[in-house]
Amino acid sequence: MKIKTVTMLLAISLVSLPLLAKDGSIDKKLLNNFEKEIDNLSNVDQLINMVTNNKIADLSLNHGKVIAHNKLFNHTLKSTKISNQKSSGRCWAFAGGNLITPKVMSKLQLSDFQISESFIAFYDKLEKGNYFLERVIELRERPLDDRSLQGVFDSFFGDGGWMHYFIDLIKKYGVVPKEIMPETKQSSATSSLNKLGKMLLRSFAAELLEMHHNGENEKALRKRKEEMLTELYKFLVLNYGKPPKTFTYRYEYNDKDDTTKTEKVIIEQEYTPKTFFTEFYGSSMPEYVAIVHNPTMKYETRYLMENSRNIYESEDFDVINLPIDDLKKYARASILDSQAVWFACDVGHENYKKGAIMDVDIYDYNNTLDLDFKMTKKERLLYGEIAPTHAMVLTGLDTAQNGETVKWLVENSWGSKSGKDGFWSMYDDWFDEYLLLIIVDKNMLSEKDKNLFDSKPKMIKDWQPFFLALRNLE
Questions:
Q1: N or C end: fewer C-beta atoms under 10 angstroms in the chain?
Q2: pTM of this prediction?
Q3: Is the backbone of residue 197 left (phi > 0), alpha (psi -120 to 50) or beta?
Q4: Which domain holds residue 342?
Q5: What is the dihedral of CA 376, 380, 381, 382, to 10 degrees?
């Protein structure tokens, strides 16, 4: 009884003891200073009422910029109808399709055409699953807390990707029109698909590593891996449907040069995904190269990221890093040459969705909250404030009378309800601050910059944040 009483008294006394002050802690004096600063604000009650009862973005919307905005562009390219990736992270594939399909539309004289992103996603998932299991086999000797092995487990089966994933996939598997392999419930909302796919593949990884620990050799592990991929293929078929081996494409052809024809001509032809790609894309596919603008890294340098591919036998992706004005120069030259530009950016900053406007200071949070949020682009990248998060396509530009670019026309994949039928306006200063990569035809580059792609690259680890984000665009 005495022991219990002493224990209780000791516990009570410990609770009642004040915490000892420590350098760097918030003590009573510092807390009083905070309160005095608030008490000295003459409009604090008004600010509290305003901010607590409204959306901060609505309070901060720059009315002057919204009024000054217009939707006119004096240089625009032919585009498909706006696409919608819905509740999935396939922006890179939608942007890839938006980049290459206008040539098919022109060749077939169609007013609209879309490839099947479900077809692309099906084989992307299959290839990512294979790559994941191969990496597990490669790293089987390492402990589970090894940084590279943990990286494999953390990011391996999501929707994310980038343009070179798209290029490698269509070159290997081909292309089909959207109506041949349309969207499904799971392809349009991928959370369950991704969760179950990761669970399945992690169970496979556990089995492979257990086999290794029990003395099985690499040949046995790879044989079992092929059986596992059969299970993954079945899982993907149930979610996306069967990818076609052959298909009939039927479309209406309108010969604009022959005005004597009164009847429309229906064209019908048999294809495989590979023959469709070869006929409509293969011969005209430019050699696309990637240019980043990252002021935290050395300019005029080639970078190669290890393990950055989605197809096991493909090459890892490389980029060159150039000043932002060079990216603008090549993007502008491409559009004026009737070539759209695939790009990556941090779309989560300073965009007004209702008006489809991307413009620096479209929200004036500094004045609303009486705080200074300003950082340089270099600082934002260094401290994780921005990163490449989304891919879209530049399809036009608007120039002032002096020839300077005012804004860029952006084809997004978020549906047609925002902006001008789903197209966005990116002002030139937003390009400066939040655009991080462009994909352009290599022929657009100067000889000096072309030669950078032949220089010895600086190797980048697969866990480096900027490049990791770049290959997981959603």
A1: N
A2: 0.91
A3: alpha
A4: 63-78+284-470
A5: 90
